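> Could you send the Phosphatidylglycerophosphatase A prediction when you get a chance?

Sure thing. Input:
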Amino acid sequence: MRPIANFIATVAGAGHLRPAPGTWGSLVSLPLAYAVYIAGGFWALVLGTLIAFALGWWATSVATQGQDDHDPSEIVIDELAGQWIALLPTLYAAHIHDIPALALYPGWITAFLLFRLFDITKPGPIGWADRRGDALGVMLDDVIAGVFAAIGTMIFAGIWHGVLGL
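Output:
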């Protein structure tokens, strides 16, 4: 079971890329999100995000069993789940307005940058989740960072399209 858990936890080895494996994990998650969206639409990405969270929780638990480090840097399935959450508002907009997903590239960039900002700085509840010291905490800090990034992406879109009228 441990090899399968490591494969999932490192997102097929992406977590072994250096430097900054968390950023690499987030970058790798972008084309994977696009592939899921193209293959099955917005709701497939929502389902995929839920599955990534559940599998990530399990894989992180197995991969870190017996280790002192509860959140080794090579585990990036949490970045994938969080990054996918951050992308949901952009891809929902593409879905409901029948716009090609990549045409909304500013939303992709904003979601990526905000997710990395929140994941690295860990303000408020993100830091709390990270300090849990268990597999659920590993996943939760990125889920919360993803929610923060999703909200930030919607705020930026509202300012850009609503206030500025662009």
